[in-house]
Design brief:
Elements (H helix, E strand, L loop, with lengths): L10 H18 L3 H11 L8 H14 L7 H4 L9 H11 L6 H14 L3 H11 L6 H12 L13 H18 L1
Helix pairs in contact: 1-2, 1-3, 2-3, 3-5, 5-6, 6-7, 6-8, 7-9, 8-9
Length: about 180
């Protein structure tokens, strides 16, 4: 069951609410309840401590699509946090492409990838947006991710950073060649 009003909202409770709201939407096709739950999570005032919960909520909003347009006011502030920018940009573009068009979304995703903030997610989102639709400048920035000296992925478990970074660079190269 969804968390009762007034109950302390911990990350695990919010994660459970997100999962229940997404399942409810999948089963009924009605976005109203899911959007209300996601708005409560995304409007949380403590993004630093809730990063992954907010990412999951933004991903759920993106899956709902335009029926989640009411989430624009709580998604837009997340763009200011580089750690949340990729998920927020994907969600905003999915729920309100007129508010965050493909060109601006691509710029935000490139900013996130270049900063090393959720770079794999940002790259996958850029590929999903379509490399062919990137501007000349954006395409050059995207290609540079694969060729620059500094690692794109710069944190992770000891011994995995290098291989994860090389896989990401290979993904970017393949997307640039194919796009």
């Amino acid at each position: 069951a969804l968390s009762a009003p007034g109950i302390e909202r911990t990350n695990p409770r919010m994660d459970a609410d997100i999962a229940l709201a997404a399942a409810l939407h999948r089963l009924t096709g009605d976005a109203a309840e899911a959007v209300a739950v996601l708005a409560g999570v995304l409007g949380t005032a403590e993004p630093r401590w809730r990063r992954w919960t907010l990412v999951r909520a933004a991903e759920a909003a993106a899956r709902i699509g335009p029926d989640a347009r009411d989430l624009v006011p709580v998604l837009e502030p997340l763009l200011a946090d580089v750690e949340l920018r990729a998920a927020a940009a994907v969600a905003l573009h999915a729920v309100a492409p007129d508010v965050l068009g493909a060109v601006r979304a691509a710029d935000l995703l490139l900013d996130a990838a270049e900063a090393g903030a959720a770079p794999a997610e940002a790259v996958e989102a850029l590929v999903a947006l379509g490399v062919a639709g990137l501007t000349v400048e954006q395409r050059a920035r995207f290609a540079e991710l694969a060729e620059r000296d500094r690692r794109v992925i710069h944190s992770g478990l000891d011994g995995t950073v290098e291989s994860a970074d090389e896989r990401l660079r290979a993904r970017v190269r393949a997307a640039v060649r194919g796009g």
